[in-house]
Amino acid sequence: RQAASKLQPRLPSALCPQRPRKAMKTAAAVVLASLAGAAAKCPGSASFVHASCQVEVDVQASCDHVRAEMLARVGGQSTGKWYDPHNKGTYSVLESAGSLTLQRVTGDKKYTDKIGFDFKATAASTCVVSGCSESQVFSVADFSTNYCNMRMMYCGSAEGCKPVLHDFGVTESSVSPSFGASHDPSACLKVVARRLEFL
């Protein structure tokens, strides 16, 4: 019996059917983790169907300066130092510990959006900003509203914006609107109340 057991063939560990599955699961987890780290955590919406947009922006400034400028623009609404050029909406801060979560109410007070920003410092002392804006009601076409919600927080004088504390160069490396949403930079500097909730 002992001799028979010694003669039983053993599969090499590389061919063991369980190990490849485990390796694939591990690889998938690593990929998902890397993707999660690269994108901002979206703030969520009460509506299952809603317009949204995500951006990734390379900013030629430190993350501290970028965050400070965003907060200065929000705070500048009450002091007259800044106003939202996109339909004169009103921003407010929901959370500022770590990530930055904002809320924006449109100029006509009819719609509310939530915006999330994450900041990642680079070795070159610049900042990669990942943002996500979501409409809070049923919506498909948003006429670039969600995109503009974010752009108005980081754009510089080169883009036609008016900084409060820090002016810096920006490059939008990725812009991903949801189906039906758009991302037209020229729409961000227009005071025109347009929004389509139902198609």
What can you tell me about this protein's structure?
The protein is an alpha+beta fold and 199 residues long. The protein has 4 helices and 6 strands, in the order ααβαββββαβ. A 6-stranded antiparallel β-sheet has the order 2-3-4-5-1-6, with helices on one face. The chain is globular. The C terminus is likely disordered.
Question: Short description, anyone?
Answer:
This protein is 27% helix and 24% strand. The protein is an alpha+beta fold.
Describe the structure using short key phrases.
199 residues, alpha+beta, six-stranded antiparallel β-sheet, 4 helices, globular, disordered C terminus
Topology:
Layout: H1 2-7, H2 18-38, E1 52-59, H3 63-79, E2 90-95, E3 100-105, E4 112-121, E5 127-135, H4 145-154, E6 170-177
Antiparallel strand pairs: 1-5, 1-6, 2-3, 3-4, 4-5
